[in-house]
Amino acid sequence: LRSCSPGRARLTNASRHAYLVARFGDIYAQERLDAETLLRTYVSDMEMVQRIIYIAAVESFHAAKMAYRHFKMRVRKTLSLGHSGPESLEDTVLDYIVRHEDLYDVQASVNEVIRSMNMNPKISFPPETDFIVISSLIRELCRVAFSMQTLIPPLDIAFGIDGELFNETKYRRSFDSDFTAPLVAHHVWPALLENDTVIVKGEAVTKR
């Protein structure tokens, strides 16, 4: 294994950050709606459709972060054997990962997400079909989430729970919300965080 030029990850951090934040927005605007349309052919309840997509996003980030940790450990173990500088081992590891993100086994993460969704008591699917129908959305989310771990600092999504107090800083209300209701009934899309600060708002449904 050979590292690329010193500091590549740091040098490209700002441009990668901008691209990934924009891509997260694109997935919300395009792939999410495609998945919603597809799910509506199997599930008549719009709330269930929104819950399925939100949980897919949360599980995708979880699976991609776990995969990144394991990938980074393997790269560090291999590169440490011959590392001599001038950049730090951590920078060399990060540079390698940024350059070889195509080695990320995204399909393994997609399988993990679908397994987790199948065990989630909050969502259900008609027995004749499977969550695999939205695997293209899950794949894109896993790819973006994995790449976001290579940023300094990494990006993550906010953890939301049903019944939490609606937070204007964190979420937009969905068009079918009760705009006077103070509590979140369920979430449509997660907020994106950098150092626990919201940089892209999510979407939530508020109802009394």
From TrEMBL:
Keywords: Coiled coil, Cytoplasm, Lipid-binding, Membrane, Mitochondrion, Mitochondrion outer membrane. Belongs to the MIEAP family. Signal peptide: none annotated. This is Mitochondria-eating protein. GO terms for biological process: mitochondrial protein catabolic process; mitophagy by internal vacuole formation. One of its GO terms (cellular component) is mitochondrial matrix. It is found in: Cytoplasm; Mitochondrion matrix; Mitochondrion outer membrane. It holds the Pfam family MIEAP. GO terms for molecular function: lipid binding. Residues 16-206 form the Mitochondria-eating protein C-terminal domain. InterPro entries: MIEAP, MIEAP_C.
